[in-house]
Amino acid sequence: MPHQPGASYFADLEPLLEQVSKPIQYVGGELNSTVKDWHVGGHAANGDDLTVRWALMYPDAYEVGLPNQGTQILYEVINECDNALAERTYSVWPDMEALLREHDLPQVTVDAHRAVGDFDVFGLSFSTELGYTNMLTALDLAGIPLHAADRDESHPLVVAGGHAAFNPETIADFIDMAIIGDGEQAVLGVTDLIAAWKAEGRPGGRTEILARLAATGGVYVPAFFDVDYLPDGRIQRVSPNRGGVPWRTSKHTVTDLDEWPYPKTPLVPLAETVHERMSVEIFRGCTRGCRFCQAGMITRPVRERSITGIGEMVEAGLAASGFEEVGLLSLSSADHSEIAEMTKGLADRYEGTNTGLSLPSTRVDAFNIDLANELTRNGRRSGLTFAPEGGSERIRKVINKMVTEEDLINTVAAAYGAGWRQVKLYFMCGLPTETDEDVLQIADLAKRVIETGRQVSGRRDIRCTVSIGGFVPKPHTPFQWAAQLGAEETDARLAKLRDAIRSDKRYGSSIGFRYHDGEPGVVEGLLSRGDRRVGRVIEEVWRDGGRFDGWSEHFSYERWMAAAERGLAGTGVDVAWYTTREREQSEVLPWDHIDSGLDKDWLWEDWQEALAGGEVEDCRWTPCFDCGVCPQMGTSIEIGPTGKTLLPLSVVGGGPRPGLEA
Ligand code: SF4
User: Fold this and answer.
1) Mapped to the 3 state alphabet, what secondary structure does 288-328 carry?
2) Measured from the CB, is residue 288 less than 6 Å from ligand 1?
């Protein structure tokens, strides 16, 4: 029987499940998952289909992809629309990929096992560039041509989002469009435009709907832009090739998080996943100004969810999911203006219950220890993590991480003194202006940490783990012009640090050392700051078997370098040109036409300030220093205090307490 659009493939899939690893990941039916009628939006009088259907993908394995907050939020927001539906799909492991190919079966959703190719929109959320090859696998399995130029009316519109979409140029050939920034409002706008176009009988086909979307200024359609290059390989200009398309595409910013309390009903995975907890995003954005941090820069300004909104989300999410742990998420959770009241209120409410609270936060100060102590009133105090990022005081000034060695020592003293046994410290190697000496100071710091810990705790069984990886300069940051350190130099520097840590017998066994070698960082660097010419490299790698590049057991540096040799042949540029080359101020960067709100001149000034070792304060608590985001995006910093210092929650165990609002 010919395949009906929207029909389930589960009957075909089921016999394959016993032949693959972790079959449960392909089954769906999780608590809070949704399957809507394929024709939920109904039909026009002439019979035209009016439903807008999204297949949403986090391009990694189910165990990594399911907890992804962005995908869960969009899934719920779209499914709340009367005329739209959303289903999820994740990357299939190579064993399943082989079976799907053998049995001529497509990439399907986990919700209703519908073919991804049957949907109107195929949306992928990229947290990292290393997911690009997984996109190609999914497109190919779905029967969607890899190149946007080869698609026709029968294929979904392929859209990229997420942080890695802030430079969509390396995947420009493969996507029809990119949505930059916060997705929850944006997907509804896109859904409305597609719905209207369908209701009109799809005038002008695929090109017309893409043109309508691009005309909003909030959807980037790579096919509507031409890139010209200079003889030396640099970009001369990027310009629209049709009328009605703005020169720059703006990011989307949700201004009031309390109006978007998603996910309301968190998905509860059937198979084991990396996070077995519900998460509540307590604020978005970060203005601390760490110069290496793309996440902080591109999510400006800071927008806090109110303490009331957070309390309600925690209560509703726990009731809907049955999770026993709540993570209070953000880029730096201890910075919420009401974090102390929030953690105390939640700890009071859930004291004596099975509900645990966690606060992923890396700020280095004693206040953070107080928070961590509060959240573990009854629990075990195992490990705390801090991210000084740079080994020496000098390099921490360069990266604008305003942490002195004394801050760090005081913080770890407070931690060990409060009963914590293990402190993890995160660093980066290869930061601009860095020398061996900056990195070797990490060994001295770690020894001081152990020494301090032994003194304040009176114990010798305390530990400190140093975790370090190579720095990758990212678009839309002050370091977007910087030269990346090569893989060999990174590895040599890390080897010296390892030897320095291990050489001292008094401390060596108390200090753990974890490092990521330099090679994956070079590929990430190529993909992060690449342009359209890098698309051929991605495709070559994929054709050569590249899959799951974010997983060290699947990643092959040799495969990437061989593919780059072939893919970039004749262009005059190579991997080093994209990675270890410092850019000049005048250079047109591949992502300049993507408007993150940050003023390029301000970024350049901050880059110069970095080289001079100058620091910049957090604009949350100081006057604006003109990064450009607020005026450009029509937004402003949204922080408390709200005046509501208590959660609107009663205590779960032992009845209400005086002072807590019921
Ligand atoms: S425009 Fe000013 S207030 Fe807004 S994020 Fe930038 S520096 Fe901060």
Assistant:
1) CCCCCCHHHHHCCCCEECCHHHHHHHHHHHHHHHCCCEEEE
2) no
Q: Residue range 579-588: average pLDDT?
A: 98
Q: Pull the structure tokens for residue 325.
A: 């742990």
Q: Is 657 left (phi over 0), alpha (psi -120 to 50) or beta?
A: beta
Distance CA 571, CA 578 (A): 12
* 349, amino acid identity: R
Give residue 161 CA to ligand 1 midpoint distance, Å. 24
Q: Which residue lies with its CA nearest to atom 4 of ligand 1?
A: 630
pLDDT of residue 522: 98
Q: Dihedral sign, CA of 483, 484, 488, 493?
A: positive
The answer on pLDDT for 440 being more than 80 is yes
Parallel, antiparallel or unpaired: strands 225-229 and 235-240: antiparallel
Predicted confidence (pLDDT) per residue in 230-242, tens digit: 999 999 999 999 9
Question: Does the global pTM surpass 0.85?
Answer: yes
Lowest mean pLDDT among 133-142, 185-194, 336-345, 545-554: 336-345
Cross-sheet strand order for the sheet of 325-329: 278-281, 325-329, 356-358
Give yes or no for a contact between 87 and 299, defined as CB atoms under 8 angstroms apart.
no
Nearest residue CA, atom 8 of ligand 1? 619
CA distance 85 to 474: 34
Phi-psi region of 22 (alpha: psi -120 to 50; beta: other; left: phi over 0): left
Regarding the beta carbon of 300 and ligand 1, being less than 6 Å apart is answered yes
User: 301 in ligand 1 pocket by Cβ < 6 Å?
Assistant: yes
| Cβ-based burial of 433 (10 A; exposed 0-12, middle 13-18, buried ≥19) | middle
If one residue of 293, 602, 625 were mutated to test the ligand 1 pocket, choosing by the most ligand atoms within 8 A of its CB, it would be 625
pLDDT at 359: 82
- Res 641: pLDDT: 79
List domains and CATH numbers for the chain.
10-250 (3.40.50.2300)
The pLDDT tens digits of the residues spanning 366-398 come to 778 888 888 787 676 778 888 999 999 999 999
Q: What is the dihedral of CA 215, 221, 222, 224, to 10 degrees?
A: -40
List, for residues 195-238, the tens digit of each pLDDT value. Answer: 999 999 999 999 999 999 999 999 999 999 999 999 999 999 99
CA of 530 from ligand 1 middle (Å) equals: 28
| Sign of the torsion angle spanned by Cα atoms 364, 367, 373, 374 | negative
Any ligand 1 atom below 6 A from CB of 576:
no
Q: Each residue of 390-422: pLDDT tens digit? A: 999 999 999 999 889 999 999 999 889 888 889
Task: Locate 202 and state its tokens.
Answer: 């799809």
Say how far apart CA 651 and CA 662 lie, in whole Å: 9
pLDDT attached to residue 654: 43
Q: What are phi and psi of 372, to 5 degrees?
A: -60, -40
* Residue 599 CB less than 6 A away from ligand 1: no
Of the pLDDT bands very low, low, confident and very high (cuts 50, 70, 90), residue 271 is confident
Q: SS3 letters for 104-172?
A: CCCCECCCCCEEHHHCCEEEEECCCHHHHHHHHHHHHHHCCCCCHHHCCCCCCEEEEECHHHHCHHHHC
